Amino acid sequence: MLFLQKQLLLHLHRSAPPVRLSLQRALLSTAAAAGSSSPIHFAAEEYLVATCGLTREQAAKAAKWISHWKSPSQGDAVLAFLTGPALGLSKAEIASLVATEPRVLNCRDKTLRARLDSFRSHGFSAAQIRSFIRSNPVAWCSLDIGERLGFWVSFFGSPDKFLRISRRSLYLASSDLGKVKTNIRLLHECGLSNEQIGSMCVTNPRLLTARPDSTRAIIVRADEFGVPRNLPMFKQVVSTMAALRPETVASKMEIMGEALGCSDAELTRMVQRNPVVLWCSREKVLSVFKFLIDVVGVDPKCIQASLGVVTRSMERVMVPRHYVKKVLQENGLIQKEQNFCAMVMLSEKLFCSKYIHPHKDVIPGLANAYASACKGKIDT
């Protein structure tokens, strides 16, 4: 039947007066319908929602990566691997991974196993691999992840430390290793070891991932601050300059100088001894100075000698210890001139051994009152 339709269509096309055009189109439609069947359309969004746990919005964005599939077999194989005994990802972890990096569903079994073996060969446990996938799915799917793992684990010394730092910077695991190695070389030239650089990167991963020109500028600012490179404090100066813009540093220095009534040179010397104070917010600095000077009655000269007091917590340290100081003074157990800044800078254990435990017989409720004060509850 189909052969006869095609022959008639060919004859009509050759002679084709206008009166026969409608018949020609009808036969063409019939022949096409008889000679082919409609392809099956794969419902990509439905698969992502029903099988992978994505929301409708997430599925709409991710569908383009799997819309070419004819069947769900490829995705099912990937999901079976990810949820299987080798990795054991949960439904929520699968949804997060696919939503962030839907191309993982197109990976071959051989690729997934090679990636898993690479992590294992660098000392990662199954739990650590799952942690990495949760925090950095894009890097997990990169083709050169094995090379990167070799570099980072060697540099930081362990998978655990690498994971801890990579969670703070999603760009660390996928950053340009050429830039990273240049930045490490620049920091080595400052006398910093791999261990010191690694500890600095816990709070400032950008020291490794930024453009080398940026790292050079940070080092220049650190040198200008006046702390010699051979001193341990230089590491803190570099970290501070990496975290704060020049104008931010200048603003905080000005605030502290005005509050303490000291010269620029005096303040610089103070901050050089404890550059971490520059990490405190403007509001924190002002509130601490106000409490110490107006409430406790501390002489600004005392604060200048212990500028690190600014980094201590008002609620959990200063206010409770001020309460203890007042109680002890009222009972004649310490002198009124007791250096409060020194009390604040003590560790919790040492503070209790000096000011709480020795007086438990004279003031039986002092320990409980101090514990309540640390929780924000002060008896009046």
Structural class: mainly alpha
Q: Report how far the terminal alpha carbons are from each other.
A: 103 Å
State the major sheet. none
Helix content: 55-70%
Supply Rg: 34 Å
Features:
380 residues; disordered N terminus; elongated; Mitochondrial transcription termination factor family protein; mainly alpha; MTERF_sf; transcription regulation; transcription; nucleic acid binding
Explain the layout of strands and helices.
Blueprint: H1 2-15, H2 21-35, H3 44-50, H4 56-62, H5 73-83, H6 91-100, H7 109-121, H8 126-135, H9 137-140, H10 145-156, H11 159-166, H12 177-188, H13 194-201, H14 206-209, H15 212-224, H16 233-243, H17 246-260, H18 264-273, H19 282-296, H20 300-305, H21 314-330, H22 340-345, H23 348-355, H24 366-374
Helix pairs in contact: 1-2, 3-4, 8-11, 12-15, 15-16, 17-19, 21-24
GO molecular function, one term: nucleic acid binding
GO biological process, one term: DNA-templated transcription termination
Pfam families: mTERF
